[in-house]
Write a structure and sequence with these properties.
The chain is mainly α. The protein has a domain of about 110 residues: Fumarate reductase/succinate dehydrogenase, transmembrane subunit (3 helical TM bundles of succinate and fumarate reductases, Up-down Bundle), CATH 1.20.1300.10. The chain contains five helices and no strands. It comes from Micrococcoides hystricis. This is Succinate dehydrogenase hydrophobic membrane anchor subunit. InterPro entries: SQR/QFR_C/D (IPR034804), SuccDH_FuR_B_TM-su (IPR000701). Keywords: Heme, Iron, Membrane, Metal-binding, Transmembrane, Transmembrane helix.
Length: about 160
């Protein structure tokens, strides 16, 4: 009977060199990003559940959600700030999470740079457009004859 023989394992230097990056991770930045994810997650839970409670359970519920409801809600600066905070935190939280995934799973530096560039551009576009919608929202839509459209919120 012959004994089983195994090949010599690869040296750890070959394995480690495959997964090392040309630049070290930004120590303090990564710690702050980790802390931001925890804090923003807790704040987002409060923001989102209050948003859902206000929109779905108070008043007429889902059937009451229409243009007039949003217009009436955004006529109050508190709700504009609330939705703006929710938008910004959700986008920053999600962008940071996807950035972490990109860092963890991409091997090539060039691929990592391009993916993160696309991610950051998309996040900025969504935040800018969302902010513009919240602050330039016109609740009093008028028909060509000057009469308010059905569902318009005109004080």
């Amino acid at each position: 009977m012959t004994a089983l023989s195994f090949e010599k394992p690869r040296s750890s230097s070959k394995i480690d060199s495959k997964y090392t990056r040309s630049k070290g991770s930004g120590g303090n930045f990564e710690m702050m990003a980790w802390l931001f994810m925890r804090i923003s997650g807790v704040v987002l839970i409060v923001l989102i559940f209050t948003h859902l409670f206000t929109n779905l359970l108070v008043g007429e519920g889902v059937s009451g959600l229409d243009f007039g409801f949003v217009a009436g809600k955004w006529a109050n600066p508190v709700w504009q700030f609330w939705d703006l905070t929710m938008l910004w935190l959700a986008m920053l939280h999600g962008t940071n999470g996807v950035r972490t995934i990109i860092n963890d799973y991409t091997e090539k530096d060039a691929t990592r740079r391009w993916l993160k560039l696309i991610l950051y551009i998309a996040a900025v576009v969504i935040v800018v457009l969302g902010t513009l919608v919240i602050f330039t929202f016109e609740p009093c839509m008028l028909a060509p004859n000057g009469e308010p459209l059905p569902g318009a919120f005109c004080p």
